[in-house]
Specification:
Distance between the termini of chain B: 70 Å
Keywords (chain B): Endoplasmic reticulum, Glycoprotein, GPI-anchor biosynthesis, Membrane, Transmembrane, Transmembrane helix
Structural class of chain B: alpha/beta
Strand content of chain A: 5-15%
Helix content of chain A: 25-40%
Membrane topology (chain B): Multi-pass membrane protein
Low-confidence stretches of chain B: 1-83, 112-122
Number of strands of chain A: 11
Order of helices and strands of chain A: HHEHEEHEEEEHEEHHHEEHHHHH
Mean pLDDT of chain B: 73
Strand content of chain B: 5-15%
Mean pLDDT of chain A: 81
Oligomer: heterodimer
Distance between the termini of chain A: 80 Å
Main location (chain B): endoplasmic reticulum
Helix content of chain B: 25-40%
Number of helices of chain B: 11
Protein name (chain B): Phosphatidylinositol glycan anchor biosynthesis class S
Pathway (chain B): Glycolipid biosynthesis; glycosylphosphatidylinositol-anchor biosynthesis
């Protein structure tokens, strides 16, 4: 069932920029000489412009506690947009403290709202949180990124990207100059984050990466990146604070942060076939609306942001090719070439070995437990008590005890 | 840990002493050789862009010559180097039929290894099967038979016939001058078609080649992985009208399993199937009055997959890459449904595929006249037609694509196995090279990481995995150079397994980053107040000791 949306999505009405721009870009691309002479080949070239074949998203909310409601709402709003534009849950790693919906202070349980007057419930009923509550730690986050995960981790908690994956990483919470606070107990620094991305690049775990951060002094987190194909956006520069949007008097806390609020408004107008590019995302939330100055970094990115579609990262538009050839199969040869199916398994009945002789258990006498002299801690504790007793009262009182 | 940089030279199989390298296919691998300090340069030429850390750099060469993207700021560091050059050797034996070469030329043949084999061959199909026991059927080895120009074995206009197994039959090119040179050129062309070319090896090493040099073919096939999971799904959005049955077990065991068995040395495969009811495509098809059918245009195809994918449940089972093959039986009100390509023509197979994901085929059901219809209509899917398309898509997704060949080449169809032996060889050549390149990248970056972070503890099993990976990769390189494709591939697979296990070991997580100013900020407020009285009392003790030394000792 479709998720409840606050306002209808205007289809193709919000194509920014002149109409001829995508056509000119396509023409320019074709002229660049990709050796495409065939018509279908040309189409394939256009489809493959960005070079990725699948999309992943890692959405992290690094705060917990009721007064950080807005961070959870931020993350859930981005989650909903990303799902709406096509990335399936199996390709989203969502890390949330998830203590809002069932918090005793929540006047509307099982909901998380992102607009005041409770217009939009972003929690919904099909949220799949992969890392919740105390599992959101710096270690787990780095393990997800670098792939050094213990073998017992289920598939939904892994980032199984390959060299043709575009990954969107969104982080929100409380941060400072060069660090981001995880759940009030630890921090991740920008150097560690940059090293993690470098580890990802070394193993080619991404094709292109979009990093969005909505914290105070968020721009400091992307200053240290040095791996290629990373584009970064932040809600505020170093020395500035990111501000929250508006409180809801019914719930009693601020519901969203400004930057993410306006990014969400921008994303609501994107549909899977839209051609909006990254330059429009850079213009979202100017200083007049956001009070802080959003920043972005594109020097590590090889393509021009003009050519990068929003859906390259936020959506999952698959590249398709028409299948034109078939393999000739001869049904008459099937019987000759198949192996003889092994039906030995059906004939022999299964027997189970006697595991628990019940009769012995029922009539069993309780086994005498071997007595061990007390050792270690208990011994030390008793020795301490006895010593204190005799120090206080003196040894002459012993005869009164025995 | 340091690894010795080694250079391997293959045994040269000189057929003509004056023309060394004739039989030897040699490709320069993409890691430079000789120096211990290496630089990674990537990106468009002349941009000076650096891949990898600015602290460590490695020089990358193109497949046919040096390719230098320019240098820029960056520190050199000692990075130990594993592999120098790739040398790939294909053992080819050329068999001349009696009378193929004129006598004068025959005397010029350097290797006089004449074996008289009598076999009557009438037709080319028989030839392929009859010649099979004559040749050594090892992976990677090829045999080319040269027959006289006028032989009736091959039909008119066909110069070369490539068989299902690893042999080819070619007509001896007629003409004045050096027939042997012409024969060698033609043989080289055949060998390139049946084993590997520069392009295919470059595509296998696509991680290191800048993006704009790659074609679309490299992005379609799956990367080399240890296993794959194949899922066949039947989507029935309208169970009230169609009662669809498909004998998928028989089809899989009859058509898909032989193909997968042939690829058994490449990876582990697991196949499963499912039927999904009420699963609709995300796009509503248009009605086309001209053909009175429903049309899915090529532009709407990319949006078909996503709504369905959430329901496929393909990600719950294993960690291997998943290939999904969907068979969609359209609803009664949307029948018949055809797919149109970009030019507006209907697609013959009625199917499309998505790179690194899988394929979808639309299966139209014939409906009888409405008054005779008894709903739900029982539909038995024609699995042969469906499997022909799915096998073709499977081949494409594995990178077994059609090789562009000149006109006079005739290829034998692979039959029910879906794959000829030499196509398997092609796959193995590229996969082996890809595996070795992956191993070298992984181990190099692991070495860099461990050098950078001095206080990571390296467990014993990680160390043994690394040694095993290096040893297996060296074995693989040696085997490649000597032409044993089967053992080279197995060694490269073992090397990849070991290196991945070493790199992704959960204990190698570097979490600790202590910048100096944070050290000051944390430790000074703790220790300074404590240290003040301690220091003062130490000073007092020293002063007292000095004073007592100065005072004369009292004697009674």
């Amino acid at each position: 069932p479709p998720l409840p949306v606050a306002k209808p999505v205007p289809m193709a009405a919000a194509l920014p920029g002149p109409r001829w721009l995508p056509a000119a870009a396509a023409l320019l691309w074709a002229c660049c000489g990709s050796a495409a002479t065939d018509g279908i080949q040309d189409q394939a070239e256009q489809f493959f412009r960005s070079g990725h074949t699948n999309n992943w998203a890692v959405l992290v909310c690094t705060s917990r506690f009721w007064f950080n409601y807005r961070h959870v709402a931020n993350t859930l709003s981005v989650y909903r947009s990303v799902k709406r534009l096509g990335i399936p849950d199996s390709h989203i790693v969502l890390m949330l403290a998830d203590d809002m919906a069932c918090n005793p202070r929540n006047p509307k349980p099982a909901t998380v709202f992102s607009h005041k007057n409770m217009e939009l419930n972003v929690y919904g009923d099909d949220v799949e949180v992969d890392y919740r509550s105390y599992e959101v730690t710096v270690e787990n986050f780095l393990r997800v990124l670098t792939g050094r995960i213990p073998p017992s981790t289920p598939r939904s908690k892994r980032l199984l990207s390959d060299d043709r994956s575009n990954i969107l990483i969104y982080m929100t919470g409380h941060g400072g100059n060069g660090f981001l606070k995880f759940q009030d107990s630890e921090e991740i620094t920008n150097v560690e984050l940059a090293d993690a991305f470098e580890q990802m690049w070394q193993k080619r775990r991404y094709n292109e990466l979009l990093f969005i951060i909505d914290t105070c002094q968020g721009a400091s987190m992307y200053e240290r990146f040095y791996s290629p194909n990373i584009m970064a956006l932040a809600s505020s520069q170093v020395g500035e604070d990111s501000l929250s949007h508006q409180p809801d008097l019914g719930i009693g806390v601020h519901l969203m942060d400004r930057y993410t609020f306006y990014v969400l408004e921008f994303l609501e107008e994107i549909h899977p076939a839209s051609q909006t590019n990254m330059n429009d995302l850079f213009q979202v939330c100017p200083r007049s609306l956001c009070v802080s100055t959003p920043g972005h970094r594109t020097d590590l990115f090889q393509r021009d942001p003009q050519n990068v579609l929003i859906t390259d990262f936020f959506g999952s538009v698959r590249k398709v090719e028409i299948t034109t050839e078939t393999v000739a199969l001869d049904p008459n040869l099937v019987g000759l070439e198949t192996r003889v199916p092994n039906d030995e398994m059906a004939t022999e009945p299964l027997k189970y070995a006697e595991q628990l002789p019940v009769a012995q258990i029922i009539h069993q006498k309780p086994k005498q437990k071997d007595w061990h002299p007390p050792g270690g801690f208990i011994l030390g504790l008793w020795a301490l008590i006895i010593m204190v007793f005799f120090k206080t009262y003196g040894i002459k009182h012993m005869k009164y005890i025995f | 840990m340091s690894y010795i940089c080694r250079r391997f030279s293959a045994q040269t199989f000189d057929a003509d002493p004056g023309d060394s390298g004739w039989w030897q296919q040699q490709f320069i691998g993409l890691l430079s050789q000789g120096s211990e300090t290496i630089e990674v340069l990537g990106g468009p030429q002349g941009s000076g862009w650096f891949w990898g850390s600015p602290k460590c750099c490695a020089e990358v060469r193109g497949a046919d010559g040096s390719w230098d993207g320019g240098r820029g700021p960056g520190l050199r560091c000692q990075v130990t180097l594993l592999f120098a050059q790739f040398q790939l050797t294909v053992p080819v034996s050329v068999v001349f039929a009696k009378g193929a070469l004129p006598g004068a030329q025959q005397r010029r043949l350097p290797f006089a290894d004449t074996q008289e084999e009598e076999s009557l061959l009438n037709r080319k199909n028989q030839a392929d099967a009859a010649l099979l026991p004559l040749q050594e059927d090892s992976l990677g080895a090829l045999t080319v038979y040269v027959i006289p120009e006028t032989s009736p074995l091959l039909p008119q206009g066909v110069g070369v016939y490539v068989g299902k197994h690893r042999s080819a039959v070619m007509r001896c090119p007629q003409g004045p001058g050096d027939v042997l040179a012409a024969v060698s050129a033609r043989v080289q062309q055949i060998v390139q078609a049946m084993s590997f070319t520069t392009d295919s090896i470059t595509a296998a090493l696509s991680d290191r080649v800048p993006m704009d040099q790659l074609g679309t073919d490299t992005r379609r096939p799956f990367k080399s992985s240890l296993g794959y999971e194949i899922t066949f799904s039947l989507l029935n959005p309208d169970p009230k009208s169609h009662d669809v049955h498909w004998d998928i077990e028989a089809a899989v065991s009859g058509y898909v399993q032989p193909f997968l068995d042939k690829l058994g040395s490449v990876a582990n495969f697991s196949v499963d199937s499912q039927i999904l009811y009420y699963a609709v495509l995300g796009v509503s098809p248009r009605f086309d009055k001209a053909s009175s059918s429903f049309i899915l245009s090529a532009l709407s195809l990319p949006h078909v997959i996503n709504p369905v994918e959430a329901r496929l449940g393909s990600s719950a089972t294993s960690l291997y890459p998943v290939l999904n093959f969907l068979l969609y039986v359209p609803e009664r009100i949307h029948s018949p449904l055809y797919i149109q390509d970009k030019d507006g023509a209907a697609v013959g197979t009625n199917a499309f595929h998505s790179p690194r994901w899988g394929g979808i085929m639309v299966y139209n059901v014939d409906h009888p006249a409405p008054d005779k219809a008894l709903l739900p209509l029982r539909v038995d899917v024609d699995m042969v037609r469906v499997m022909e398309v799915f096998l073709a898509q499977l081949r494409l997704l594995f990178g077994i694509s059609q090789v562009p060949l000149p006109e006079e080449f005739l290829l034998e169809s692979p039959g029910n196995k879906g794959l000829t032996d030499w196509e398997l060889d092609r796959l193995l050549w590229t996969r082996t090279v890809e595996n070795i390149a992956t191993v070298s990248t992984t181990l190099t970056s692991l070495a860099q990481l461990l050098d950078k972070i001095g206080n990571i503890v390296i467990k014993d099993d990680v160390a043994s995995e690394v040694y095993h990976a290096v040893a297996s990769a060296q074995t693989a390189m040696l085997e490649l150079a000597s032409g044993h494709l089967g053992s080279a591939f197995q060694a490269s697979k073992e090397a990849v397994i070991s290196s991945e296990r070493a790199f992704f070991d959960p204990s190698l997580l570097h979490l600790l980053y202590f910048p100096d100013d944070q050290k000051f900020a944390i430790y000074i407020p703790l220790f300074l107040p404590m240290a003040v009285p301690i220091l003062l009392s130490l000073v007092k003790i020293l002063r007292e000791a000095k004073q007592s030394k100065k005072e004369p000792t009292k004697t009674d």
